[in-house]
Records
---
Amino acid sequence: MRSADSDRPRGHVLILGGTAEARGLAAGLSGRSGLRLTTSLAGRVSRPRMPAGEVRVGGFGGADALAQWLRAHAVDAVIDATHPFAEAISANAARAAAQTGIPLLALRRPGWEAVPGDRWHGAACLAEAAAVLPALAGPGGRIFLTTGRQGLAAFAAPALDGLWFLLRSVESPGPPLPRRIRVLLDRGPYSVSGETALLQDHRIDVLVTKDSGGRATAAKLVAARTLGLPVVVVRRPPTPTGVPVVPDVAGALSWVSGLPVPAGRPRGAADTCP
Ligand code: NAP
């Protein structure tokens, strides 16, 4: 945000966070003079990596409540920098922005692309990923599940009771869980050598992942390719219609710079001086 007569940015930006990109954006905006910056976290993990600037934690209570929060806190712009699979908060942000007229940008890291040697199988959702596992892994097959601790009910279906799962997640999962499972609590970034050793040590037959994109968790894809393992890749939900999207922090920073000065805001002395 810039005034016509000054390079001084102003206003209140809300970042919907929970990703490395959201933290990178907060770091990039935190030095801008006159800009109030708040990051919102869902509160899912007990020890979140904290961004620069102000932080609030917990759900808003739906789209209407988010719109109220934006008005009550005089927010001038919202950047949805949540995970590509955080579908509900992105939809709420789009509805709240439409209600309030507050500009909204989605920051979405690009998805992963298959390269020669990859044995990827696309799935529209976790249930579809679970359904292909018995045929892909074979009887007694061993699955490396990296889709997080939510939605594990899909893999707890009786049809999958013959499979063994290694689940990696940041926090412990709750039931329902697959019948035969080992949980590995860990948080990226991961290395190719580490991921290769993990796949070999656990004699993994199939990797399951969301198309999260980004470098922090991409090493498992290289390791699977090297070992010739099939990978079930859950496709992303679409970004809400009409919301502009940038692929990286630099794009979001320049979007903020191009925003108009917030209407009706008191102008500070610095803004009127030459
Ligand atoms: P979700 O399904 O889209 O959101 C469920 C509800 O959680 C939302 O309706 C909202 O509650 C609240 N919420 C989500 N993100 C929030 C935020 N940044 N600030 C305040 N409230 C938030 O999201 P999710 O998939 O559970 O993910 C939760 C958070 O974890 C996200 O912020 C996301 O960036 C991060 N994350 C998700 C994944 C993933 O695979 N889904 C992976 C890594 C990180 P109200 O309706 O009450 O406002």
Note: Residues 16-19, 40-42, 44, 59-62, 66, 82-83, 85-89, 92, 148, 210 surround NAP (CB under 6 Å).
---
Amino acid sequence: MHQDVEGIMFSKEQLQTRIAELAAQLDSEYAGKTPLMVGILKGSVMFYADLLRAMTIPVEMDFMAISSYGAGSKSSGEVKLIKDLDRKIEGRDVIIVEDIIDSGYTLSYLKRMLYSRKPSSVKICALLDKYSRRVVPIEADYKGFDCEDEFVIGFGLDYAERYRNLPYIGILKRSVYEK
Ligand code: PRP
């Protein structure tokens, strides 16, 4: 285990088992369709790559990048688009792939924006749901795990851009971010 990690919340094996289950669920619910899998950079990258490789139906890939701004903190709820999709989504079945839902600001902004482009459907697939931190009412349609209100890192999740490449979801030691 990494020296900055207090404990493991979800092991590599637990993640892969749950991701395989989610992939099978998506395969079945989207059978006969080719969903457009929209990964939200950067946190979703590991989940996105593993989820898509576990799916067997045809999919298309695209990415968006979002940034929070205003009042110096994401708690302001203001988000802006940094990178848009490459292609039009009118008439498409869109699945937004996220690593975590926290306040819900990011996904509520994204869902509203994508719906305005007249897709056939927009669903949310999130690996982690920190429900206790929710400010705006938004739910994942497909969810990996409920997540306690801890400082989680790894498997795409960062603290100051570090730890994204840990192969598990860990809890960051307080001493790392309180010093
Ligand atoms: C994280 C995460 C979600 C968002 C969730 O991204 O990937 O996009 O925060 O938080 P919310 O529900 O409170 O909006 P972050 O802005 O940390 O960027 P990153 O993916 O590049 O790490």
Note: The first strand starts at residue 5 and ends at 10.
